[in-house]
Amino acid sequence: MKKVIEKLITEKLINPVLHSTAPVSEVSLGVAVGVFLGLTPTVGVQMYLVALVWSIYRYIFRMHFNLPVGVAMVWISNPLTMVPLYYLFLLTGYWLLETQNGLSYELFREYLIHISSIEGTWEMIVAGARFLLIDLGWPMIIGSIVYAVPGFIISYFMTE
Q: 94: pLDDT confidence band, cut at 50, 70 and 90?
């Protein structure tokens, strides 16, 4: 299992950065955008969001970043890391907002497993978004921003 995970990380996260022919600044910005979006509760649409941000950067701000690298970096949150990451976001948000956590890790995990078993991609995305962004709301959003913003800054400068 460890070998499979190492291979997956190498192929999906490290190789796109190492083998990119884009300028370093474009790769760094791609990494930063991907890490930022990977550290938000938007699993299922993260790759589309990277493409949307890429379009906005390119056509509105006239800035460029490496799209394949950005897409690869959102895999920082994946089926293996999603539950612990999202629960960490939730706990952080509850702590910052000084509210009570009414959801145990086990119950949170069960909700996400149930959502991932829903038939149909669109229905699963809608159910996940409803749970993460509406049912859990501000604690989830604020908690994720606490990690996404430093993730953006650190990953940009680490790859520049």
A: very high
CA distance 148 to 76: 11
End-to-end CA distance of the chain: 32
The count of residues in the chain is: 160
- Rounded CA-CA distance 3/83 in Å is 22
* Residue 23, domain extent: 2-77+150-159
Tally of helices (H runs) and strands (E runs) in the chain = 9, 0
Examine the domain organization and report whether 127 and 73 are in the same domain: no
| Distance in angstroms (rounded) separating the CA atoms of residues 5 and 160 | 26
Alpha-carbon distance of 11 to 115, in angstroms, equals 28
- The 10 Å Cβ neighbour count of residue 102 is 7
Alpha-carbon distance of 81 to 154, in angstroms, equals 20
Output the six-digit token pair for 104: 């145990």
Number of domains in the chain: 2
pLDDT tens digits, 47-58: 999 999 999 999
Q: Are residues 120 and 92 in the same domain?
A: yes
Q: Residue 110: which residues within 8 A CB-CB, separation 6 or more? A: none
Read off the DSSP letter of residue 77: S
21 and 50 share one domain: yes
